[in-house]
Amino acid sequence: MTDTLADAPAAPARGPAQSALARVPTSAWVFAAFIALFLLSGLIRPSLLTLDGLITTVTFASILAIASFGQTLAVIQGGIDLSVPNTIAFAALSFLTWNASLGPVLALVASLAASAVIGCINGFVIAKIGLTPIVTTIAMNGLLFGVLLLNFSLSELTNVPEFLQTITVEKIPFLGSSIAAVVPLALILMLVLHALLRWTGWGRALFLVGSSEATANLAGQPVARIRITGYMLSSVLAGFAGIAIVGYYNQAETMMGAPYLLSSVAAVVVGGASIFGGRGSVLGTLAGALVLGQVSTLVVVFNLGVAVQDMVYGAIILVVVALYGRSHSR
Q: Which among 141, 244, 281, 303 is least buried, having the fewest CB atoms inside 10 angstroms?
């Protein structure tokens, strides 16, 4: 037995370069991928390799990132939130409807509160009843779609309050050009969520629950409460994304959330989150949104259409999840 152990080959030692690369955050590699795609786009069409071209992609990515931050919280705890699309639409249409009678501030509060109720139901069913996140949230998405059709029909609402346009579409001078206010809005939201996840007990507990629910239980963490609040915050962020989308695009309709079903998941997994839970960051999600934004630009350049874009997003999700699955099984 001793000889066998002695003869076993030793694991190869990591060199300084390998150790340094291993310490580079995943989000940094994703940002590097975005820069490479941006340069590639410039080679294909030089007019894209400009500040205005960069700002266009960053603006699209900022809106996608806001819609994906809630998904990040769901994935970190080892779940997924497939009710994001119709939570976006429900919050947006509710906000515009209630704005007429309540005013913009109360309508905003009421819409986010309604979104929190949606997340609370998702979290309760998952944490207390034991249904899987996929089944629970896809069922909620279908339920919300029915509510949208019954209450809003196929109408399109365009009476957007001025203050909402100010914080989303207002132009801010930037390096001789201008950026939409939704870009700094996304950055501020990212910083707040980063602080919540990294520097609070609740944030650390969310990662622990995603890594191992059994370990979280042994550590005395209120797992059910953490899951429920995680899904509540996920839905609130989706609702806020819907309201921000209304402000930027100046309209809302029942199918407005559909494009964010695949893209919100893709932004999270491309950003380095593990679909198995316990790993992820809002910074990585922003980087993932930038990559997808540049992919979308390339789709437009080649005139491939939305169907091809969704196929690319789906392929990205499959490849990244397969790679995580292989590393997870080792």
A: 303
